[in-house]
Every structure is written in C-alpha cells, then in structure tokens.
Amino acid sequence: MKTLLQTALVFSFVIQSTISMALTPRIPLRDFFKNPERTGYQISPDGKWISYLSPYERRKNVFIMPREGGEAKRITSETARDMAGYFWKSNDRIIYLKDKSGDENFHLLSVDLNGENLKDLTPFDSVTIQVVDELEEHPDQMLIGMNKRNKEIFDVYRLNVKTGEMKLEAENPGNITGWVTDHDGNIRVASTSDGVNTSLLYRENQKDTFKTILTTNFKEQVSPLFFTFDNKYLYASSNINRDKGAIVKYDIANGKELETIFEHPEVDVADLNFSKKRKVLTSVNYTTWQPERKFLDKQTEDIYTDVQSKLPKYQVVLTSENKNEDIFIVRTYSDRSLGAFYVYEVAGKKLTKLADVSPWLNEDDLCEMKPMSFKSRDGFTING
Asked: What is the rounded distance in angstroms from the CA atom of residue 21 to the CA atom of residue 23?
C-alpha cells in the first residue's frame, strides 16, 4: 500500500509539473541578455533636450530629441566599439568615453549637439582616463585622472573641453588611489592604500601639501562621499566604533567624527544624496532584501511619493535632472522587469513614458521574489 501511495504521489507531481510547464512559455536565454533599443536617458541642464543611447551599426550611440516633442537625431557615429558612458557637459555639448578594440585605454571625446566639432580630448596612445569631477559650474572645464606620466598611477589634470588644453592639477606621488574635490572643484582629500591599510590625506587649500589624517586597517573604513556645503567638513560612510557602515559628518581636518546622519541596525549604509541647487541633503539609499530609501528632505520625498503613486508596482529612481531640478528622468525596475524610462515634470506633476527597457519580456511570465530568513546555530540571522 505504501509503495502504491508513493507511486501515485510521484505520478501526480509529474502530471502537475507537466501541465505547469505546458502553460508557462519557454523564454529564450538570449532574451535576458539582449541590449535595449533605447537606454541611458538623460536630461540636458536647461531641460530642453533628452538624450539616450541607441544602436547605430550595432553600436551604442548618442541620440537627442526635444523634450517637448520632435524627431530624434543621432549625434555620434561610433561603429567599432560601444561607448563606455556619456554625460551632458553643458546645454550644447556632450562628453563620452570610448576605448579602442577593447584595450580599456579610455579616451574622452566631446561633440556638439548638431553632431559637429567632434574632438578627442585625450589623444594619447596607451593612456586611459578617469573622471574626477565634471565641474558642472564650469561648462568649459573638468578634472580628469590620467596615467600619461606614469602608466601605473593617475595624476589629476584640469581639462578645457572645447580646446583640449590641460594643465597638471595634482601629481600623484605613487600611492594615491582616489581624490575628493570640494564644491568649488578644489582637490582637498586623497586616499592611499598599501593593500591592507588605507589612509586619508587632507589639505586646507590647493597650495598646501597633503597630510595624513587617519589610517585604518582592512576591518575599518572611512569612505569620503562629499564635502559639506560650506566646504568645511566631510560626509562619509564609516564603521569606526560601530558594527556597520553609517553616514556621518566628519571633521577631516582633525580626524574625528562629529555627527551620525543615518545608520541602519541590519545593513551597511554608504550612499548619500543631495540637491546641488538647494544645497540640502535629500536621501540615503541602502539595501535590505530590496533597495530602500530614507528621506532627509520633504521636497524630495514629495516628488518620489507622487512618482511612486503613479507607478505602484515598481521601484523608482530619479536618475537625471535639469539644473533647475524641476524636470527628472525616472527609471523603474522590479524583481520581474527591467522597467522603463519616464520624464517627470514637477510643475503639473506630469509623468510621460519614454521607453521600455525590455519590452520583449512579459513580466507576468516571470517569478516573483520574496525574502526569507532563518536563525543559524550560533544565533545569527541568515537572510536570502
């Protein structure tokens, strides 16, 4: 009897599984890896133009279109390699990065909105660059890291994006792995590492020499985020004297913590956002079983609340904004969808869809994700 019952249960399970598989469509693996037709949407500083990446000759290129309606036009013509990224430098100029044949020696290029005046701003062989500061308040300048002098380290240069002229802003002595600028574009903080210990270096102004303020081992960290709006202190993520990383205000000149801005009892927190126009902290991002957000500013919370009410099934992120901070690009996503891009106008609370990221995937065919947890034998909570 037991054998017959076991056989019946197995048979029933097989029948149910077969029916379920027959009702669920098979999704080709390539559908999960296809490049979107349109992605990387951004808004111009004046809010008049929307840009995005779309294939041309099978390579991602920059297209722009008027925000209030009109035909899109392609302004770049890269055919050998996808560009590695792009951004608006001013209302009439876009900057993008690309390498050659996958060598990862990235060059910085500049192009006008009409697709003319294309210029390789770093036309050097076997040299790669890093963006240190876009210098949004200086439309013709930006700070870049470049290993032109020594292939193993990056010095900082001030670059004119119209002429290509550059001058050395900070020479790397050999052990600096990162730089932090203040809100005026001055390099004030640097970090060094020997592979185990990390040190923070500070200088009061561009003329001073860097001095070591703090050294931490591999168990501790103080990661600079950005300066306070008076350029006096630093916001950072720190786990000094605590179990998890928290957002703190840090007196970098004297190497001491002043204030805890936000901490979470379960997870590290390392992401802090602010309004460049209004000079206020806006939100903190962190991840539990899903991305979450703590608002520090009512105006930002109101915008997110309104957008979320219009898109209740999805996570929403404001990924780009105009200089006036009243027009935003919104990206959505969920556990079953790569989401879509929208443009949101604060005046009138208007939300307009731009494009789906992967319209060929039906989210109703995909599985929902749910959190789970259990206690280990030594009393720790294991999440999954």
From this structure: 5
